[in-house]
Design goal:
The protein has five helices and 15 strands. It has 262 residues and is of the alpha+beta class.
């Protein structure tokens, strides 16, 4: 089949639109509202619904947030990063604040309940007290790639997870997924069972915490089901993701082939 000149031009325009459309959608801000919760030092809370503990209080320098059910996603949204900016130009900066999701919370038609540090970061210099006096503000937000983790680099493609202190070698294994590169949510975790030659699903306990009783002996191979912010779901694999003699409290990093969208 051959195209004439006008058909070729139209074809090029349509293909270009199909390529660029997901990028344009991904960079669009969504209107919402934000408020903040109180803490003694302005940082986050160690008791957040994601199960991060003390890590969830200080990660990203305390610029953290509880989010609505729609963004929490039954725990799959834990660790996601968003740019949030206030829509009052007289009180707020243009860039706003980049936050990490560490908790679940519903406010007055809000999608974000920010830590005090994060809410103050929305404000222009010397306008933070005025902004906080409002209590709730109109904002807009968009999903962004996470770049807060100490070992993160723009070209890295990693999943960072910690063996929960509640784990009991070798009878009970619980993992907390701390960081995922790009704009990916982890929606399933499975372990390879060498004895039965099949994958066995871990259970999402709550938030970012996954567990399994009687895990496989020896080095453990994991696979993670990731879902991008545009809804594409795929699996990534990590051989020997957890060593044979694993210990509670240890953290590991799986170098995997995640889709890293800008």
């Amino acid at each position: 089949m051959e195209f004439n000149k006008h058909e070729k031009q139209l074809y090029t325009v349509v293909i270009g639109f199909l390529v660029l459309f997901p990028v344009l959608c991904a960079s669009t801000f969504t209107a919402s509202r934000a408020t903040y919760y109180g803490t003694p030092d302005g940082y986050g809370t160690p008791s957040g619904a994601c199960g991060f503990g003390e890590y969830g209080r200080t990660v990203n320098n305390g610029y953290v947030s509880a989010v609505s059910r729609a963004l929490y996603k039954d725990g799959a949204g834990c660790g996601a990063c968003y740019q949030v900016r206030c829509k009052n130009p007289h009180l707020c900066t243009y860039d706003g604040v980049n936050i990490v999701v560490t908790d679940y919370g519903e406010g007055d038609r809000t999608d974000f309940i920010l830590s005090p540090r994060a809410f103050s970061k929305l404000a222009l210099p010397k306008a933070d007290k005025k902004l906080m006096s409002y209590g709730v503000v109109e904002v807009e937000y968009k999903r962004i790639s996470c770049n807060y983790y100490p070992t993160h680099h723009i070209n890295n493609s990693v999943i960072t997870y910690k063996i929960s202190e509640h784990s009991n070698y070798p009878y009970y294994l619980a993992l907390t997924i701390l960081h995922v590169s790009g704009k990916n949510d982890i929606t399933a975790v499975e372990l390879w069972q060498k004895e039965t030659n099949q994958w066995k699903a871990m259970r999402r306990v709550y938030g970012a915490v996954w567990d399994m009783a009687n895990p496989p002996r020896g080095p453990i191979t994991l696979r993670f089901q990731a879902t991008t912010n545009l809804g594409y779901t795929y699996w990534v694999y990590s051989t020997n993701a957890i060593p044979k003699l694993w210990k509670a409290g240890a953290a590991y990093q799986a170098k995997v082939k995640l889709i890293i969208a800008k």
